[in-house]
Amino acid sequence: MQTTAVYTVHYRLKNRTGEVVDTSEGGEPLHFLLGGDGVIDGIQEAVRQRGPGDCLEVTIPPAMAYGEHNPDLVRKVPRSAFEGIEDLQVGMKFQTNTGEQAQVVQVVGIDGNLVMVDANHPLAGLTLYFDLEIVARREATEEEVRAGRPLA
Length: 152
What we know:
The protein has helices spanning about 40-45, 140-145, and strands at about 5-15, 20-25, 30-35, 55-60, 75-80, 95, 105-110, 115-120, 130-140. By secondary structure, the protein is mainly beta.
């Protein structure tokens, strides 16, 4: 069996102009199993072969993050699909349960009785800029490898 590692990483996500838009500073760092599903490929590749104390600046293209923006995931639905929502507004997010799995959609436009929703991840199509600090690295247990995520 191939060995893999559990990483603990503090991060700062910045936009194209360098403004911090998300951070773990002041909170819990990110814990993930290298090769697991818990974190985007770009971060996994950046920390591979690195250890505690390493600080990295990483630019991650959409293909290694949340993918390209897919126009097929933007669609118009009737306003009646939001029954019970009195004050529907652009920016609101909803979880749908149609199809095989739940999906989150964001309202991106309202035109009379039609509502434009987008099921793309909010960061789809964007290049991401991260500052990463590796806090800890340890070998994963067999149970964690089977589970595909850290268990502790």
